[in-house]
Amino acid sequence: MSFxxxxxxxLLPLLLWLLFGLLPGCKPxxxxxxxxxxxxxxxxxxxxxxNELKGKTVVLxxxxxxxxxxxxxxxxxxxxxxxxxxxxxxxxxxxxxxxxTIQKYRSLYPDGLTYYKLNxxxxxxxxxxxxxxxxxxxxxxxxFQHTGYNQWSSPETLNIIRAAKTTF
Length: 168
Known about the structure:
alpha+beta
């Protein structure tokens, strides 16, 4: 029995770490702060974000038109959207810029992503770097998050997003 004690002491923390998803970028947390947001669509209509998120797998991207990595990853997000939308995965982009600025960007770089304007600064949500992207499962848990540019259409990242559909 004493032989197993050191092994258990060493392996138990690792097992708990893996079991509860405490890998970087994979710590499950509640997305409540996002569900409570009231935002504006690019036509100026008020939208309760909970209606867009509840019960769905969502890729939620915080970005800005002035941010080079944000603009660089938009084609990646669009490609991922075209590959995953038919699987019921929703892609939402949120910015705290003026609606006219977002509209101008959309006219210059049209895509199928859904864009909303935040009523407050992203800093109000505790987001201090962009792009900041969250993958939220249908139960409202953040199962993956990434700061900075990402290749959203890479096979590895697509698999992470798909796995969110079944992560509880």
